[in-house]
Amino acid sequence: MGTEKNLRLGVLFVDTIVLLLFVLGFYHIMYHALPSSVIGITGRSWMIFVYLTSFLMSSLLFPSMVQLRLIKWSDVFVRVFTTCAMMLLFISLIMLLARPDHHFPRTFIFTSIAAYFVVLMSERSLLRIILTHARANKRNLKKVVLIGNDETVFQLYRILSTPIYGYDIVAMFYDGECANEEIRKKRMGGTNNVYGWLANNRDINEIYAYFPKEQHETINMMSKYCDNHLIRFYYLPAIDVFKGKITFTLLDDIPIIARREEPLRQTKNKIVKRIFDLIFSTIVLILIFPWVFIWVAIMIKIQSPGPIFFLQDRTGQDGKIFKCIKFRSMKVNKDSDTTQATKDDPRKFPFGNFMRKANIDELPQFINVFKGDMSVVGPRPHMLKHTEEYSRLINRFMVRHFAKPGITGLAQVTGFRGETRYIDQMEGRVKKDIEYIENWTFWLDLKIIIKTVTNMLGKEEGNAY
Question: Which terminus of the chain is less hemmed in, N or C, by CB atoms within 10 Å?
Answer without folding.
Answer: N
